[in-house]
Every structure is written in C-alpha cells, then in structure tokens.
Amino acid sequence: MSIGEFDLIARYFDRPVRRAALGIGDDCALLALPPGMQLATSCDMLVEGRHFLSTVAPERLGHKALAVNLSDLAACGAEPLAFTLALALPSADEAFMGGFSRGLLALADAHGCELIGGDTTRGPLNICISVFGQVPAADGSGALLRSGARAGDDLYVSGALGDARLALEAFRGTLSLQGADFETVRRAMEMPQPRVALGQALRGVASSAIDLSDGLLGDLGHVLQRSGVDAVVEVDAVPRSAVLSAQPMAVQRLCTLSGGDDYELLFTAPPGRAAQVSAVGRRTGVALTRIGRIAPRADGGPRPHIGLIDAAGHAVVHVSASFDHFRT
Amino acid sequence: MSIGEFDLIARYFDRPVRRAALGIGDDCALLALPPGMQLATSCDMLVEGRHFLSTVAPERLGHKALAVNLSDLAACGAEPLAFTLALALPSADEAFMGGFSRGLLALADAHGCELIGGDTTRGPLNICISVFGQVPAADGSGALLRSGARAGDDLYVSGALGDARLALEAFRGTLSLQGADFETVRRAMEMPQPRVALGQALRGVASSAIDLSDGLLGDLGHVLQRSGVDAVVEVDAVPRSAVLSAQPMAVQRLCTLSGGDDYELLFTAPPGRAAQVSAVGRRTGVALTRIGRIAPRADGGPRPHIGLIDAAGHAVVHVSASFDHFRT
C-alpha cells in the first residue's frame, strides 16, 4: 500500500512538541536555548550496505539511526533536545515505516529528544538525521572536545569494544558463532546504546572525548591529531565481551582495535582526576576502563603516533587502518 | 582519481569558522545565539532524478542544494548562520566535488552562512543539507509562520513563477524552447535565488509566509490548512516571465499554479499594510505582486478551498495536484 508524502509525515512522525518552540509543519522548526547554553549539532547519513545490512529489522534500524547521532552529542557532553529526519525511501512501505518510526521514537523518548522536522522523498534508501543538544558555553565545564588531550593524561574507554565488528564478520561468513552468541553481538551491532548520561557526567572531568564509530585506533588518531599529541595503548587492557574473549587473539585485536560501530566513548583525563572518573562510572552505571596514556608528540611532525603494547609492555604489531567510506 | 573520506572533507569543505563557536572536525559543531534569538532550522534531501537531473552542472547543483534550504529560512524571516552537509557519492569524483563545493560555498558566502559540519559516505548520490538561522523570539516581529493568515488578508507572491517548471517540461520534451529562452528558464530551475533579505524584511509586516517549492496551489494549501482559512487566487495576476508569457495559456497556468521549484515567497498581509509591503519590495529590490485574498473557511470543514478566478472575476477550472514525491 502506498501513501502520500504528507500523509507519511502526519501518520508516523507528527507529534506535539514540548521542548521546541515549533515542531513539524512549517518551513522551519524553532528552538530556544536557555541563557549560557550553546547549541551542539551533528548529522549522520546512513546508507544500506555501508551502515546497515538489508537483514536489519526496521525497528532496530530506526533505533540505530538516532543512536549514532545521540552518540555524537554524548561525545560532546551535550544534553539532547531535538532532531530532524530526512528519509529517502524506494517506496512508501507502511510495514517498514511502522517499525522504523517505533524504534526511532522509542529511543528519542528515552532521551527526551523530540522530532521537530524533516523531509521525505522517494529514492534509494537513505537516512539522514541531524541532532540538536545543549551544552554550557562556560570554559571548564563546557563541551568536551577532541582537542583537549594533554601528555600525561590517562586514556579511558566505556563499556566493551568489538562486538559489532564480530557480528559483521559473522554476517560476512569469515567466522561462525553459536546462536545465542550471535544474537548477543548482533544486538550490539544493531542496537547500540549511546552514552548520553556518561558524556554529560564527564564534563569538567575528561580533558577530551570522542565517540567510537570508526574503530578505536582511527578515532584515537582524530583525538591525537586535534590535540597535537601521541598515545600508547595497552591492547590487552581494552575491554571486550565474553563472546569476543572466546575468539582467537587475532580476531579479538581486529575487533577491539579496528572494529567500528562501537558507540562507546573514548576519553582522556589527568591522572589526578582518576577518582572522579571512577565516581562518574559508578554514578552512571557504565564500566570505565583505563587503556593507556597520552604522550608528547614524539617527532614534532604533523602525524600522530600510536604505540601498541601488551600486558608485559612489549610492542604489538597491528596493521589495520580505520574505516574509510571511500577506501573500503 | 579517488581520495579518502577525511581528505575529501579537508580539501573541499574545511574552512575556518567566524560565526560558529566550533566548526568541522569534532563530534559536534557548536553555535551560540545572542539573547532574545531563537534557532530556526530546516533540512532538505535532494535525490537525482527527483530534485535534479543528471544533466545539471555540479556547480549549479551545489548552489541549488543550499538555495532550497536558505529559502526555508527566508520563509520564516530568519537570518542565515550556518549549515551542515551530508553527502552520499557513488565515488569520490574530484571534478564533481570541485564544482559542487564551488557553487555551494559561493552561495554560502553570499549569505554569510558557514559550513560547520557534515558527513560523507559512499552510496547513490544524495545531498542532505540542514540549515541554521536566527530569528527574534519576540511576538509581532518574530518568525513568519504558515499559521498566521486571516480572512481579509491580501495574498502576495515575490518575483515570477513557473519558469522552473517550464524548463522541466522542455527537458521532458513536452514542449520546445528557443536556445536563449531555454537557457533563461533553465537557469531559473538550476540556480534559484532564495529570498533571504525579503523574508527578514517581511517580519512584522506579513501575517504568514511560505516558500514555493511544491507549486503555488499546493503550498498555498499548506498555509490555508495551518491558518484555518480559504483563499481566492486571481490566476491572471500571478506574475510570470516574458518567456513563459509567450506560451499557450494552458502551459502558463500549469507552470504558475502547479509548477514547483519556484523558491519565491508566498505571503499574506492585512490590507492596511499594503503600503508597508510596497516599501519592503522597493527596499529589497524584489517585485511583489498581489494575487488574491484570504477568505473565511466556507464550509467549516477540515479541508481548505482555493477559488480560482480570471481577470473578469469568472471561475477558472484547473485540475492539477501539488507535487508529492510518493504520488508522482
């Protein structure tokens, strides 16, 4: 059954707004910010075969499309306010739209993030979400940035890494997993939980932060680049699930170091704030693991260096680039 | 030649920001608003074959992708501040990217609207822009909305309508145009000029406004729906170019009433403000034409009615729906 563009919006997406000054239905949405707050915004575009597989349930796809955007707000320590959705669909498929909107709006409601506008059109499936949050403009307790890492800082990661990549490898058939194990890691890939509360709690504690979407080493590289520093990562300290821990070490390292789609937070903090970091972890109920430290830029050059060591302090060789949409 | 995702951003899009607190390169961009200002935001997704033809020059496509978004800000009377760009490309084609970014950034610079973030990925060509502007939160001189039209208001349109549709019909081969005429209307289709200054000048003067993207009758219907009123349009009064005026009357009516892609402003104002409307037209250098009036909702029902009359006041029959991406 096919329905029109305006019916599609009205049926699945048009709900009264509580936080925005004006939601769906006009040329623009309007959003007011309290004094002292800045707007934080990010957008992500999801394409079938690149960011999700055709096998994903529409409800999970709706969840993930917003989750990856909320994860960007989390990395800045921003509080979610609102989002817009632009959607290209091959056809106005009501079964797809019902599931997609259910998953999307459930996650939105869980974070008090309301849909204030968007666009729908016919075309190859493409989901583009822009998310809006607020963060204090003040120095010190303001937005978490990639540029604040300093030599001597500890390097931390939230949760466990690599399950999403493990699921992808299982889908690709390069390894096989038991049914329950597969469902566990598939859920990690399809239903990431953005670390929104953690990001806000880290304001004033972390010196820099980024969310892990392209893989630990690639995303760490962005932090080092922006901060003008190097890093040493203790590869055996990188937290991983029981399912991933049962895999050969080569698979564990691939998935934890170059996995992608983790949507955990990678952040730095001075050693003097270790107790505050622990307290944030307890308060938000998120496991926070120290996985290395920030070092001065060794050669003074423009490219950062990441040293990898094992538990014994020996150098580890790992050759796998970060994910790049135009190189893979 | 193929380049990577991060190179692509750095080479074509990463420029220092002046108005935003933080631009490209972090998880979020940051934007501060002066006290008393609200954020106005809108997003549009452009798909090949739906919103543009494969024959369009990349530079013009870059222009149009931002123009249609700036037009939404114009319709709200907002001042442009910034935008984000999400781009899916079949390949990292440098000739395309060079032209596209040139057209895009030239229009951005002309309106002081800076690129603060985005996303690039490989996929079927898709361009999704979100635009951000500021508008006073104050009543009376705040954002122009679709919901403010009142019975008795005059109905106005800026510029001339229908050239973009005339060009589309020429591309489709349903009519033919002389070379110079074709170039004129093709330019209207590919290089629309968003009425940004006009929109801001109409704050406190117009009672409602919308930008014309789906065709006069369809977009007027949105205003009437939100405002709970009807309208009468004098079809011969709708302004059109010399090129369109040379076409048969049936073509003129199709193009002016149901054309689409005009990106002119349709707005209403009480008759007592006619002199103010004229002054705004002179000040901004944009032709403003009265094309009808707003009437009370005739039947008290939920659907608005648009009466069409000719210069003699006789009813005109016109059957052509608005453009709907899922119905055409």
Please provide a written account of the structure.
Two copies of one chain form a homodimer. The first copy, chain A, is of the alpha+beta class. Chain A folds into two domains: 5-136, 60s Ribosomal Protein L30, Chain: A; 146-309, PurM-like C-terminal domain (Phosphoribosyl-aminoimidazole Synthetase, Chain A, domain 2), CATH 3.90.650.10. Chain A contains ten helices and eleven strands. The first copy, chain A, has helices at residues 5-12, 58-76, 94-110, 163-172, 179-190, 196-201, 216-227, 242-245, 249-258, 274-284; strands at 29-31, 37-47, 79-89, 114-122, 126-136, 154-158, 208-211, 229-234, 265-269, 288-296, 306-309. The first copy, chain A, has a six-stranded mixed beta sheet with strand order 7-9-6-10-8-11, with helices on both faces. In chain A, α2 packs parallel to α3 (94-110) and α4 crosses α5 (179-190). Chain A is globular, with a radius of gyration of 20 Å. The interface between A and B is large, with 70 and 70 residues. β2 (37-47) of chain A pairs antiparallel with β1 (29-31) of chain B, so a sheet runs across the interface.
A few lines on this structure:
The structure is a homodimer of 328-residue chains. Chain A has helices spanning 5-12, 58-76, 94-110, 163-172, 179-190, 196-201, 216-227, 242-245, 249-258, 274-284, and strands at 29-31, 37-47, 79-89, 114-122, 126-136, 154-158, 208-211, 229-234, 265-269, 288-296, 306-309. Chain A is of the alpha+beta class and 328 residues long.
